[in-house]
């Protein structure tokens, strides 16, 4: 059965559903803006019901924000027709259990103890962070974060910017598990041992639609960037230690608990920090800062597209003491080395 257009969906749904007049214009606008298509009228009806729930949830949450009850706002984006729990099943992918021994590449945190980092820092301000992309419905955050870190090292080295191929990793990396997850330092090591990364233009991303990977191909496409290794900061560490590591070496692949309070509709403000939660999502740490009242935060680049957060970036509330926030860096704070 072919996909249903906006007009067809509305005609069919109008025959079988009672559509709230209050939500109908927003639903039509949403479908047009994000070019939504559904395989059947039934699927469209389910999506609209989820969208209506999202509208109500966003409105209720933002009222709490105005009352000072929560620290971030929500907004409608491309994920508004998805249930949050279902969303989290397909939009993470960090698998700590896959982590290979990387102790030989660990940098003692004591090396940075005496360093005094600046009060605030953001690698975006010097254009050393590549474009935000969207992993879609595939547990490939590990691949997007790994290559984002490589791309930043390319920019820091003064080379021409190039978007690298996540699909190459998903299809060909035999250490990690494609859409079923992976671990960034595994990826750095695999790239080091297998000739480097191919360009996205030669090996484009296709797994975002359906949570599946393909056969390793693109053998004739040359690698455009080699990786010579990686370095990982050892734990435990203080906030200042992590900041110094970030400022000295570049954006870092880090682990977070993405399924805890990382709302698909997040727009602005501070995401809640969760201590001792399962680390299930990889993101790129690009900076840090503090607001006018001294509230500290980390700045991360996500892989959920530019419609999420601040054009794909977010602020995570940091620990307000000297102990590094383990929900941000537990077992992973690493950058690749390149040639």
Automatic annotation (TrEMBL):
<dbReference type="InterPro" id="IPR038765">
    <property type="entry name" value="Papain-like_cys_pep_sf"/>
</dbReference>
<dbReference type="Pfam" id="PF00112">
    <property type="entry name" value="Peptidase_C1"/>
</dbReference>
<protein>
    <submittedName>
        <fullName>Cathepsin L</fullName>
    </submittedName>
</protein>
<comment type="similarity">
    <text>Belongs to the peptidase C1 family.</text>
</comment>
<dbReference type="InterPro" id="IPR025660">
    <property type="entry name" value="Pept_his_AS"/>
</dbReference>
<keyword id="KW-0788">Thiol protease</keyword>
<keyword id="KW-1015">Disulfide bond</keyword>
<dbReference type="InterPro" id="IPR039417">
    <property type="entry name" value="Peptidase_C1A_papain-like"/>
</dbReference>
<dbReference type="InterPro" id="IPR013201">
    <property type="entry name" value="Prot_inhib_I29"/>
</dbReference>
<keyword id="KW-0732">Signal</keyword>
<feature type="signal peptide">
    <location>
        <begin position="1"/>
        <end position="22"/>
    </location>
</feature>
<keyword id="KW-0865">Zymogen</keyword>
<feature type="domain" description="Cathepsin propeptide inhibitor">
    <location>
        <begin position="27"/>
        <end position="87"/>
    </location>
</feature>
<feature type="domain" description="Peptidase C1A papain C-terminal">
    <location>
        <begin position="117"/>
        <end position="337"/>
    </location>
</feature>
<dbReference type="InterPro" id="IPR013128">
    <property type="entry name" value="Peptidase_C1A"/>
</dbReference>
<dbReference type="GO" id="GO:0006508">
    <property type="term" value="P:proteolysis"/>
</dbReference>
<dbReference type="GO" id="GO:0008234">
    <property type="term" value="F:cysteine-type peptidase activity"/>
</dbReference>
<dbReference type="InterPro" id="IPR000169">
    <property type="entry name" value="Pept_cys_AS"/>
</dbReference>
<keyword id="KW-0645">Protease</keyword>
<dbReference type="Pfam" id="PF08246">
    <property type="entry name" value="Inhibitor_I29"/>
</dbReference>
<dbReference type="InterPro" id="IPR000668">
    <property type="entry name" value="Peptidase_C1A_C"/>
</dbReference>
<keyword id="KW-0378">Hydrolase</keyword>
């Amino acid at each position: 059965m072919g996909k249903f257009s906006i007009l067809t969906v509305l005609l069919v749904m109008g025959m079988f559903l009672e559509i709230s007049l209050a939500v109908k214009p927003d639903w039509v606008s949403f479908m047009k803006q994000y070019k939504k298509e559904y395989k059947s009228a039934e699927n469209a009806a389910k999506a609209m019901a989820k969208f209506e729930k999202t509208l109500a949830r966003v409105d209720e949450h933002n009222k709490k924000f105005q009352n000072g009850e929560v620290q971030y706002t929500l907004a409608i984006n491309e994920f508004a027709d998805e249930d949050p729990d279902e969303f989290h099943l397909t939009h993470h992918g960090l698998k700590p259990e896959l982590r290979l021994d990387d102790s030989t590449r660990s940098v003692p945190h004591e090396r940075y103890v005496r360093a005094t980092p600046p009060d605030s820092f953001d690698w975006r301000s010097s254009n050393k962070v590549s474009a935000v992309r969207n992993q879609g419905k595939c547990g490939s955050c590990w691949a997007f974060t790994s290559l984002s870190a490589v791309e930043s090292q390319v920019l820091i080295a003064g080379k021409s910017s190039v978007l690298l191929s996540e699909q190459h990793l998903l299809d060909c990396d035999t250490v990690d598990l494609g859409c079923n997850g992976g671990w960034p330092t595994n990826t750095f090591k695999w790239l080091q041992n297998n000739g480097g990364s191919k360009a996205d233009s030669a090996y484009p991303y296709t797994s975002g639609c359906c949570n599946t990977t393909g056969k390793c191909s693109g053998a004739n496409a040359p690698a455009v960037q080699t990786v010579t290794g990686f370095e990982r900061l050892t734990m435990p560490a203080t906030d200042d230690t992590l900041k110094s590591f970030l400022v000295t070496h570049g954006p870092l692949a880090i682990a977070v608990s993405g399924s805890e309070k990382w709302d698909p509709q997040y727009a602005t403000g501070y995401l809640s920090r969760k201590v001792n939660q399962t680390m299930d999502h990889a993101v790129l740490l690009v900076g840090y800062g503090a607001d006018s009242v001294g509230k500290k935060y980390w700045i991360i680049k996500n892989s959920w597209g530019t419609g999420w957060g601040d054009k794909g970036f977010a602020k995570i509330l940091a620990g307000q003491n000297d102990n590094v926030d383990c929900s941000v860096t537990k077992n992973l704070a690493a950058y690749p080395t390149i040639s």
